[in-house]
Amino acid sequence: MRHRHKRKLIDRLSHGWMLFSLMIVLLIPLAIGLGLVMKSLPILQQGDFGKLLIGTDWHPLKGRFGFLPFIVSSLYVTLLSFLIAGPICLMAAIYLTQYARRWLLKIMHPVIDVLAGIPSVVYGVWGVLVIVPFIARQLAPFCGRESSGYSLLAGAIVLAVMSIPFILNLLIEVFTAMPIELKEASLALGATYWETIKRVLLREGFSGIVAAFGLGISKALGETIAVLMVVGNVVCIPDGVLQAGYPLPALIANNYGEMMSIPLYDSALMLAALILFVIILLFNGLARLTMKRGRVQR
Amino acid sequence: MKRRKQIEESVCKVLMAGATYLIILTLLFLIFVILKRGLRSVSWEMITQVPKGGYYFGEEGGILNAIVGSFYIAAGATFLAFLIGLPVALFMNVFLTRHERLLERIRFFMDVLWGVPSIVYGAFGFAVMVYLGLRASLLAGIITVTLLIVPIMIRAMDEVLRMIPQGLLEASYALGSTRTEISFKVFCRQALPGMITAVLLAFGRGIGDTASVLFTAGYTDYIPETLLQPVATLPLAIFFQLSSPIPEVQERAYAAAVVLTVIILVVSLLARLLSARFKEHVLK
């Protein structure tokens, strides 16, 4: 009898512990959102939000905070990196799942794991060692421009390499999850292999592909250290990819230590973090929804 | 017409194969560059000593403070994340199996949470620290990194637990087990290989992340003795030393990058080996 009581008590206790942990995890994003909003209230009360977003004037000492240069830089770097990584990943995913021998897909999994596991600061070091000098010495003179190498393009290339394992992994999943009957039906109707891929698989996997790209983009948008190390960090609205830029995450990371003495500065940086948080949550949520919907349709 | 189709297919095939090999080559190239540039400066002294006077002007010392600090942070955070993550993953797969819609929502939520960048966690952690009047410390670093790796750990464990057939759950119920006993005696054991992978995955993420510890853990030349002291971390050691104008110090950043890369590679290798090793406890 006592034994049973003990078992029940343990069950209760562990149930409580589990519920408590789940609550904590569910509360994390709420706490983050609330904390960031509260911290950025002072600056939001000062000027109107629209003006802050499209303002180009960034002089914290004079109390002027315009986020446009940072937002534009972030968009530049992220989209450019996507233009590099997206097509490469899509082509590699099709090749690996449709044409390649089994062993290639098998060795690809550890390759993806390792690439995904390498810390971003190491990617940054690689960028400084390889990409930056390449742009400064070869690419820029070739285009007839001058560049220190620390540029939006360098940031985009490093970012592209970083997001490849992530996107590729998702895409491989999309293609392997497709029912084989679809392919067989198309081939039976006399389509060539390539036509089947183009007309059937790509169309069938469309929502999955879009979702994978969306997740890749939102991940790239928040990447901090690797980009910060190679992008140059100059406050201006960039007008070319060989120029330096200053994305939002880099802004937060670079200025956090010193901002305490300047009024509103910490509030402005918190607002930057809040913008990043909201955009990425939205993007991520939409991409995940698209992915789920694609699965349900089938 | 037929010829054109064939040409199109073979051209595309070559392009796609090219893309695949490009990815593999990039990985090899990356590791090659990091190793080649850094191995020159890796020495025994470097990984067994803390920085001495004049270290940041290129004189004696090493990065032991950062190596130990990184292990403290990653181990502490992994432990905390395990304490929170394991019950959540078990709860989802043992207690909530009948509430599919709720489960689906929780999974969706975790996936979205996974995407939040570490700089946001770092900024949030710092804001909370300022609010509470704390200074950058080992404890603050551990908590921030915990927040970052909890969703990763939960989703990784959840993926493994999900694969366990319902029959096992039903059989355990039929034998009169409580849900707690099913969770810890049956499910944990069945999922052990995957759990190990999940923990090591989270550990790897924790040890390599820079942006979250940038403001919360601080930086110091000493190995911390209490939870409230600031602590150095490897990624930050790389980052700070690389931005130094002195070539000797930069060399050390490359060496530190090798140390970090090797740690990560060892952890991921360990994850593979251990999870293969513990497969013998799994019922098939």
Radius of gyration of chain B: 23 Å
Helicity level of chain A, as a percent range? over 70%
Roughly what fraction of the amino acids of chain B lie in strands? Answer: under 5%
Largest interface: A-B, 85 and 82 residues
State the CATH topology of the largest domain in chain B: MetI-like fold
Regarding CATH, which class of the largest domain in chain B?
Answer: Mainly Alpha
What is the average per-residue confidence, as pLDDT of chain A, rounded to a whole number?
82
Measured as a percent range, the helix fraction of chain B is over 70%
CATH architecture classification name of the largest domain in chain A: Orthogonal Bundle
Q: CATH homologous superfamily of the largest domain in chain B, by name?
A: MetI-like
- Number of domain modules of chain A: 2
Compute the CA-based radius of gyration of chain A. 24 Å
Can you summarize the main beta sheet of chain B? none
Sequence of strands across the biggest β-sheet of chain A: 1-2
Could you say which structural class the secondary elements and strand pairing of chain A correspond to?
Answer: mainly alpha
Span of the ends, CA to CA of chain B: 53 Å
Residue share in β-strands of chain A: under 5%
Can you put this structure into words, describing what you see?
The complex is a heterodimer of chains A (298) and B (284). With 298 residues, chain A is mostly helical. Chain A folds into two domains: 2-46; 53-297, MetI-like (MetI-like fold, Orthogonal Bundle). In chain A, 78% of the residues lie in helices and 1% in strands. Chain A has helices at 2-46, 49-54, 68-99, 102-117, 120-142, 152-176, 180-188, 193-204, 206-222, 225-230, 248-255, 265-297, and strands at 58-59, 64-65. A two-stranded antiparallel ribbon of chain A has the order 1-2. In chain A, a hairpin with a 4-residue loop joins strand 1 (58-59) and strand 2 (64-65). Chain A is globular, with a radius of gyration of 24 Å. Chain A starts with a helix and ends with a helix. Chain B has two domains: 2-39; 46-281, MetI-like fold (Orthogonal Bundle), CATH 1.10.3720. The termini of chain B are far apart. In chain B, 73% of the residues lie in helices and 0% in strands. The radius of gyration of chain B is 23 Å and the shape is globular. Chain B is mainly α. The longest helix of chain B has 38 residues, at 2-39. Chain B has eleven helices and no strands. In chain B, helix 7 (166-174) crosses helix 8 (179-190) and helix 10 packs antiparallel against helix 11 (247-277). Chains A and B meet through helix 1, helix 3, helix 4, helix 5 and helix 6 of A and helix 1, helix 3, helix 4, helix 5 and helix 6 of B.
